[in-house]
Amino acid sequence: MKDQVIQKIQTIFREVFDDPDLIVNDELNANHIDMWDSLTHIDMVVMVEEEFDIVIPEDNAREFSNAGDLINYIIEVKG
Description:
Elements: H1 2-16, H2 38-52, H3 58-63, H4 67-78
Helix pairs in contact: 1-2, 1-4
């Protein structure tokens, strides 16, 4: 399941951050992507919610320190 989540997240990240070569891994965070700011973070969260048909509470969305946190959250919720 993790590989499927990563593939979908990678597609979303590539679109949000306008980088067709972006590779998502667990450690990827805002320090690695120049375009990752509060607005693109919101865009990314909304697209993830739509793709996975979930709601990510605002507190959780703020606590994600990297892509791995987001991926693990999705796996936990969709389990």
